[in-house]
Amino acid sequence: MSLRYALLGLLADEPQSGYDLTQRFERSLKRYAWHARHSQIYPELNKLAADGLIAVVEEGARGRRTYALTEAGREALHGWLMDWSSLQPVRNEFVLRLFLMSVLDPSEALPLLRGIHEHAKEEVAELEARVEAAGGPDGEWGFGRLAGEYGVRQYRAMVEWAEWAESELARAVPDEGSGDTST
Amino acid sequence: MSLRYALLGLLADEPQSGYDLTQRFERSLKRYAWHARHSQIYPELNKLAADGLIAVVEEGARGRRTYALTEAGREALHGWLMDWSSLQPVRNEFVLRLFLMSVLDPSEALPLLRGIHEHAKEEVAELEARVEAAGGPDGEWGFGRLAGEYGVRQYRAMVEWAEWAESELARAVPDEGSGDTST
DNA sequence: CGGCTCATGTAAAGAGTTACATGATTTG
DNA sequence: CAAATCATGTAACTCTTTACATGAGCCG
């Protein structure tokens, strides 16, 4: 059911088409929270419209249909956002890999950790820039500001974790510091 | 494919039955990384056995079958753990809700944030205790130590985020501090 | 020996991915 | 006018959940 409410939520931000929604998943939601392809989005929009939760408010070129929430849709979204009792469990392959990583020996794990470290630093920089930009001139924050700040903090914690993990593993791999890989 | 490697990974820790694996998902993996029910686990174990990646090493009471990795299974797991190129996107309904939370007005969001804050503090305490226990007397760390430390840090960051978010929202809801809710 | 837990399974439905398919509009 | 992008759709397959189903062993 999450997709359904994700769509309602994005339409609450502003009316848009299936195409727009697809891009929003691709550009921001996908990396932090949820993903869906157009092949799942279009049928779901048709169901939402059939259920009276959204409605076409504009028809444009190339068959483009812009949807907006109906009053019923706004209520459904609101009800869902206020009720946290049925939160789906997280599905995070990254953490799964961490769980299983003891299978590798430290000399194998260390380069992986360095890659993660790099990646996390880049994420922090990118997210900080985005949050900064959204906080912009007029002091208004924009949609998803709580998530943005959450993301920044999560990735900062990830950077610190990676630093800790590297030093932890480096202790188990004494041959560090010399570029010499012989014997 | 993640389930497949999750099972191989857990069997790499120690040989166990489908029943044991089901409980491990339920008790620890579910909350942080991945979930699967017995109805998905048993058929997958049969497939893994058919593919020669695991094998029954013991048969016990009530039809219990204990599986262990074969050499091929160990290689498959190792290959997967070393190759991070095809990481599945995160599916996190919690973050999705944060994304959409601007739909609520601050007076509605604030109590939700307080609940999250409480919950995060409990998670930190529980995880710290678990990590501490695993770090135990002999200094050995146990399976999943990297994930454990990661979890603690993520939840600590969540607590700090919640504190920030509460103070941020409280500014938008001036009638705080008086328990009086009348007009 | 009755109730609980252990232990495994299958079937149907729902959610999500991949691949196939089509056509309109814009841009250079 | 050709190429790229916009825009929507469906079909087949895989993955996941929910529900149904069964029986053995353990504990009081």
From TrEMBL, chains A, B:
All copies of domain Transcription regulator PadR N-terminal, residue ranges: 7-78
Residue ranges of domain Transcription regulator PadR C-terminal in the record: 90-169
Superkingdom assignment: Bacteria
InterPro entries documented for this protein: Tscrpt_reg_PadR_C, Tscrpt_reg_PadR_N, WH-like_DNA-bd_sf, WH_DNA-bd_sf
PANTHER family on file: TRANSCRIPTION REGULATOR, PADR-LIKE FAMILY (PTHR43252:SF2), TRANSCRIPTIONAL REGULATOR YQJI (PTHR43252)
Identification of the protein by name: Helix-turn-helix transcriptional regulator
